[in-house]
Amino acid sequence: MAKNIVITGDTVTGKTMVAIALASKLRESGATVGYFKPSGIKSFVHSTSEMDVDEDAAIMKDILGMEEQLSCICPIVRHMSSYDELLRIGRKELKQKILSCYEQISKNRDYIIVEGEQSPWRLLHVGLSTLDITRELGATVLCLVNFTDISAIDDILLQKELFAEYGTERIGIILNLVPPMLKKVVNENIRPFLEEHGMIFCGVLYHNRELFSPTIGEIMRALEGEMVIGSEKMDLLVDQFIVGSMAPENALKWFRRSKDKAVITSGDRTDICLAALETDTNLLILTAGVGPEIGTLTRARELGVPIMMTALDTYGTSQVVDDLIGTVTVDNKEKIAAVERIVGEALHLDDFDL
Amino acid sequence: MYYDVPLFQIGHYDRSYIPEPLNPDSCRMKVVCKVDKQKGIDSLFYPRSIAVIGASETRGKLGNDVMRNLVESGYEGRIYPINPKAGEILSYKAFRSVKDIPGDVDVAVIVIPAKFVLKAVEECGEKGVKALVIITAGFKEIGHEGQEAEKTLAALAEKYKMVIQGPNCLGIINTSAPYNASFSSGTPKKGSIAFASQSGALMTGILDWSLMEKIGFSKFVSLGNKAHLNESDFIEAFGRDPDSTFILLYIESVVDGRKFMDACRKVIPHKPIFVVKSGVSAAGARAASSHTGSLAGSDTAYDVAFKQCGVRRANDMAALFDVASVYDDMHLPSGNRVAIITNAGGPGILTTDACEASGLQIAQLTSQTVEYLKENLPPAAAVYNPIDALGTAQPEDYTLCIEAALSDENVDSVLVLLTPQAMTKQTETAQVIVDAHAKFPKKPLIAVFMGGNSMVYPRIILTEGHIPVFDFPERAVHALAELYKYTVSRDSLKEESIPRFKADTKKVEKIISDARLDKRRVLLGSEAHAIAEAYGIPVARIRLATSSEEAKTLAEELGYPVVLKIASPDIIHKSDIGGIKVDLKTPEEVEAAFLHILDNAKTQLPKAIIYGVDVQEMAEKGKELIIGCSRDVQFGPLILFGAGGIFVNYLKDIAFRLAPMTRSDANELIMETKMGTLLKGVRGEAPSDMIAIEDTILRISQLVTDFPDIVELDINPAFAYEKGKGVSAVDVKITIGGP
Q1: What pTM, to 2 d.p., does this model score?
Q2: Which residues of chain B have pLDDT under 50?
């Protein structure tokens, strides 16, 4: 029988990343791993006219190479069109659907990673919350808690109480989005505090830029851009975006401040392009369809820095890319390796009964 | 390898002489250089044989132009045209390949399509050619492949121990060899100016113009893409060349800033170097970047570099050649005192104004001169400087005024103005000026003949009599002033050691590598202050607190009152988001401020990554200074000093020097600003601790020299206190580069 691990937490970001890293760890040890998301939300980008698709399920199916239908990996896909869209179908039918799909997925697999709803209490109204599912499947619980400041200890205790109420006494806790200033506090105080309260400390995800950085591929898709050179580097991460419209003598000063950045400028600003190339730049984004001058191209080729062109102007470009940073989407295969590495290193599951 | 060569040999020069490493005893000065390059340039300047690869019989082809120039320039060595068809070119036997030539070849000029160049260069290497002039274009300027080809060229040069000028250049002309291996139209007059230019087209214009202006050149070098030989190599070679006494450069960028400065410093004590460097304005810099395909260093850095190595910068080409034309004919002025002789009041006053504005002084004539002029000039004439001999002035009047001025010990140089009035005899006056100079050749004498048609012939007389002549006074004054300023900067180049202070370099290394592990480019305040402290710079101490409890403990340790500042590399203007609280006197205030600052940061910049809050001791207020450094791509650390505080960008009372610096450099840097004057104490105020300020500048200079990874550093403000009370760095910011 497969072992179930529920990944839960009141977080928008992080659960799927933990699922990816956990799956990778388990598979490394030789186990067969499946992914199951009892209920998700319709992604209008990924859905087709025939099928409603949850984004996380789509990417996990892909990563794990699961042969099951997406409609089975994530049997309930909410449209969020009305408060009673699920009530109308009824608990019984929904539960039936979930369990039969789970049965299919769990067949011949050692582990099933069950990704919870956006928060553990969602879907309480049809009795199918993550809490209910956990109890139903008798799963082990890994709970992510955003720990942006110390007041979050109460959030941790709330999660513990919730799951205890539903029959799970010991849950694993992963602290998420921890700022560097809390490093010491987390290690010296929070960890023992959790252990005293009967929880298992399973690691810390620091506010790591790399996890929140889009790849060049992602940027290209968002900008509907075109690569001039460097199309083989689509998985390079971009940490920060800087609009290069300053006087050339100030450009270096600003460009030097950031690592792994993309510089957004116009192709005719050779001075800015060259200054950007002189510093730690992962991508030049040339706007308004003005391509690079030969000097820029030569230097970029020499240094191996990709150049992208977009028809958007500088302002439009910066608006689009601004939305790419700080939100994690794993809708991009290039980033999986970074997630597996960084989150994988952060997870400590030795004390956790798997 | 280093070798010693005699610099500035005066007198006989054996034209066939190829310098070998010489006996050090015969040297006036040690020159540090790679053997091959300077030796190669010597071969380039004085070749015994020249091959023209791509020589052509067909008029209109570059290979024909180069051949004809070479033949017509009167070159006395052997000429070998190379052409796959062989036969004869301009009556010289042609060879299919340079390898077929029976004798040695010193120089090969390459004018064949770019795709054949590498092969030809390889053959030249095998043949043992010493220097190549690659005129062919189609290298770096056409993109990546071209650039790769240039790298191969440089590698081949090193492999075969030869030097390469160009590619993509006009060629080379040496009027003293003599030979012209370029595709210029015409050969310049023989003279003593050595000219190197990054623009070949500009050279053709100058050459043509110089023929009209009768300005002579010793060497005329087109630098091209500078794949191997660059401006620094030629400056050094011009410095050693006895036929060149004056060096002019047109550049858009330098290849190696440090090497350039070293080469100039060596030459300046003996010969003036004047440079026009384009790309001053933002738009100009952009144009230069796009033209050269390389990031130009900041124009400020160029300015400072020129200043620090004694090079004079001309603002435009006209000014460059004005100076050259005066220097070509005259000795350098021994001071800045000028006598002005005129036949009209207005031009005299204009010239006086121009002199004052350019840093020249209107000489105070000795009483003997004044008396002599009074006796011999009409009573209405002005006998003090400017000397106005009136509109009626005849050539004899000019003679007596000029001779009196030239023999006056209070006068270093003389400007003679002439306007064409009814009784003026332009031609005869021109002649008496030539005669006067022959009598007193040591003091510079410059003519300003204002006018048009009637001045054409007199100007010819002056030019042929080696008197520099101008249309209007401002240009003449500017040229004279520039020569005077050269003498000043030449004399101010001193041998002074760079001071070294004790420093904890281990600590700095550790901080930098920790920040790098954390993938940060911008150091935290506490780290930056620790680095400054490790170099003995007095700082207002700062510690990072990650909780309000810790902040209180640290405040206790540092002593009240304290300042709290948000610590986040993402937040640049801390005060703008309420990220700074000052003058906190109690633990309660510290706790409240800690929470308030975090709250402000989180609400205003939710995406910023916060490392904590810095707790800093509160420094007593002093004079607000800024001391900073930005690493220039060409010249390295550029140190800034000036009036600090939040108005830096508006006051712009700042000056720059390149590190490493001597104590005189530091002092001059301070005194170049208005703040420098204030620091000395004005209106009864006590003077500031100048030594401590100099020390701080020098310690920073040492820090950024020791650690190339520090790419930006700013101390703003640093408080300067009264003499003996030192300085205190209040806010230190450091950005690191590297991997």
Answers
A1: 0.84
A2: 1-35
